[in-house]
Amino acid sequence: MKKVSFFIGILLLCALPIALVHAEELIVFPAKGQSAEKMEKDKGECYTWAKQQTGVDPLALAQKSTEQAPPAGPQGERFAGAAKGAVAGTVVGAIAGDAGKGAAIGAATGTMAGGAKQRGKAKAQQGAQQQQQGQMKQDLDKYNRAYAACLEGKGYTVK
Q1: DSSP secondary-structure letter at 106?
Q2: Residue 91 pLDDT exceeds 70
Q3: Which of 49, 50, 103, 129 fits a disulfide with 146 by CB distance 3.0 to 4.6 angstroms?
Q4: φ and ψ at 28, to 5 degrees?
């Protein structure tokens, strides 16, 4: 059950950048009676201007958010931990007089250690994704302010 919850959480985190990019779309109203053609032309000019002023391209951000690699699944940390633990347990068990029991204890301990390592990797990856998403949102906000300023200067109402 924990694995299912974990993977659902990761999937939601992957979808978040897409939602952020699309949720920030501005509404533009031609306050001075501009035609639809004039408005599209002005939007194109303001897109170019805002991109130059901020160094942020919202289309590139959207593409980047959809191209993010999915989070890596388990990479065998538990198995590797079990194998290492079993070897160490065999040595300790042999010294104590029961190599089989030592190997079993070592394998169980190694499996737990491998699982902890796996969870640590997943948490670090999740933190990096959240930081990247925060930066994308800041960049998009910066671009939107510049884009809105340009359109407002051309006589549009922007919300």
Answers
A1: H
A2: no
A3: 50
A4: -120, 130
